[in-house]
Design goal:
The complex is a heterodimer of chains A (about 180) and B (about 120). Chain A is of the alpha+beta class. A 6-stranded mixed β-sheet of chain A has the order 3-4-2-1-5-6. In chain A, helix 4 runs antiparallel to helix 6. The longest helix of chain A is centred in the C-terminal third of the chain and has 24 residues. Chain A is globular and about 45 Å long. The two termini of chain A are about 30 Å apart. Chain B has a 4-stranded mixed β-sheet. In chain B, strand 3 and strand 4 form a beta hairpin. Chain B starts with a helix and ends with a helix. With about 120 residues, chain B is of the alpha+beta class. In chain B, about 35% of the residues are buried. Helices cover about 40% and strands about 15% of the residues of chain B. Classes of the chains: A alpha+beta (about 180), B alpha+beta (about 120). Chains A and B meet through helix 1, helix 4, helix 5 and helix 6 of A and helix 1, helix 2, helix 3 and strand 2 of B.
Chain lengths: ~180, ~120
């Protein structure tokens, strides 16, 4: 994975596979350069036994093969910056994956295209309630599907290509402002 | 800057188009593999390129969707195209710049882009 936003897309896909109807994606960057990424869902959750081995690359829910790299790669990405990965899960209630990254660390991958990640998550699961918030000392980017559905009504799906393009551009503009502010420092 | 006001305008435009749309018998499906293998190999920009191209051309009979691991991780990003009445076509090692040709030649004109298929790669 070349960008953290790709890890986030991958881990969030697990929430969708777990039958979640709500996904909260929250990124918080502090003045110190530390970034906390929280991916929280209300999916079917994991048993304590499965949770204990879920970052093992040879653990997966798939029945067609025996490897599952997503969380293993995410753990690696966090730990190689000196950060951590913590998971809380309750069967029937959902899972919260919290990772921390030192963005000043040489081995921290770039955040990458967060707008593309969020837009594709929404496009791929138009019924899912997504709440995205990226807070930095320079400002904030935010989007919720509730807000979009209030404008679009029930008859226009969030999976439509026109809506995807709008979401992607809308968020890219917000994200670019956060990055622009970094370069000015 | 984009605003929710603009989204409202898109909604009105789409609703007018929906009223014009008749029953759709030639519905084409484009499915992009978006598991860890696909994402790591570059499926996200490929998916975005398909959505952009379909929107640009206003193709109302095409659905672009995501799936998990298609099964040949070393050939990711993989895209499957389902045209009713025709055999499924699997495109492999996809890059965003390959997308316009597939949309134009395959989705619009029903000519498979054989250079990009799994048959050509194997």
């Amino acid at each position: 994975m070349k960008e953290l936003s790709l890890n986030i897309l991958d881990v969030a896909q697990n929430s969708i596979s777990a039958g979640a109807t709500r996904l909260d994606l929250t990124l918080t960057e502090g003045e110190s350069g530390w970034l906390t990424v929280v991916i929280a869902d209300n999916g079917r959750g994991m048993s304590p036994e499965f949770l204990a081995k879920v970052t093992d690359p040879f653990t997966t829910t798939r029945t067609t093969r025996k490897v599952g790299m997503g969380l293993a790669l995410y753990l690696l990405a966090a730990e190689q910056t000196g950060g951590t990965l913590r998971m809380e899960s309750t069967p029937g209630q959902g899972t919260t994956v919290t990772a921390t990254f030192d963005r000043k660390h040489l081995d921290c991958p770039p955040l990458g295209d967060l707008a593309g990640t969020v837009a594709l998550l929404i496009q791929g699961s138009p019924e899912l309630e997504v709440h995205y918030r990226h807070t930095t000392p320079r400002g904030e980017a935010e989007l919720s599907t509730e807000e979009l559905k209030a404008v679009l009504g029930d008859d226009i799906s969030l999976a439509e290509p026109e809506i995807f393009t709008w979401i992607q551009t809308y968020l890219s503009e917000q994200e670019a402002q956060l990055e622009g502010a970094v370069q000015e420092r | 800057m984009k605003s929710l006001e603009e989204l409202r305008a898109i909604r009105e435009k789409m609703k007018r188009q929906m009223d014009l749309r008749g029953p759709n018998e030639d519905h084409i499906r484009v499915v992009v593999g978006m598991a860890t293998c696909g994402i790591a190999a570059g499926a996200r920009p490929v998916m975005a390129a398909f959505l952009d191209e379909v929107e640009k051309r206003g193709l109302k009979n095409v659905t672009v969707s995501q799936t998990g691991c298609i099964g040949v991780c070393r050939l990711e990003p993989i895209v499957e195209v389902f045209v009713p009445g025709e055999e499924k076509v699997t495109y492999v090692k996809m890059k965003p710049d390959m997308v316009p040709a597939i949309v134009e030649q395959h989705l619009v004109n029903h000519n498979v882009v054989t250079d990009y298929t799994i048959g050509a790669a194997e």
